[in-house]
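Field reference: "sequence" (input) and "structure" (output). Example, CTLH domain-containing protein:
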Amino acid sequence: MMARGEPAKRSIPPEQWEQRLSQVAISKDDMNRVVMDFLVTEGYVDAARAFQSESGTAPGVELGDIAGRMEIRAAVQGGRVEDAIDAVNDLDPEILEEQQGLLFHLQQQRLIEMIRDGRTGDALEFAREYLAPTGEEHPEFLDELERTVALLAFDDPKASPVGDLMDASQRQKTASELNAAILSSQRREAEPRAALLLKMLLWAQQRLEERANFPKIVDLVAATPGDK
């Protein structure tokens, strides 16, 4: 219900809204750059090469560097965390030297992989040697460390109250954090511009909805408007 004294919302018919949208000029070059940015950020090397050839849009980075970044991310997603750490240090040792949180999460993932493989003794020794000192120096990591070590108390860690750490989503979370750090070291945004534009769209629609009824886009995949 409208509050007393509050101005009535303006209603914009779908036809008028479509007409206004059609008057917005969008440069093809700008669109191509958004597409290329998405391909580069997400690591679609072959698609980026093909798009560069077809559109003439420069990727802005060496595509070979993208392949290396994707190999590192794939290593974490495949549970080969040591390989990923070695590759990151070869790429830029300052990444892990300067980001203790990221290094902790990679070591945490190494511990999880040992537990997954049933290497209980190795896992205990690794936790004592590498993770416990980090927890003492950085108390903010203690809760995560305790949850991870708790996996060792269960015969079936996956079915335990902390079994979510054994899910593929945990690997993906660590891989995404590492990928973002590599992008940052290369002076690139960790998130594609397309995602940022979608967030801006949602924010703009929310602000406009305070003043008017209009055909909002409710399906971001199809980019189709819903009811006013």
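The chain has a mean pLDDT of 87.
Residues 198-228 form one domain.
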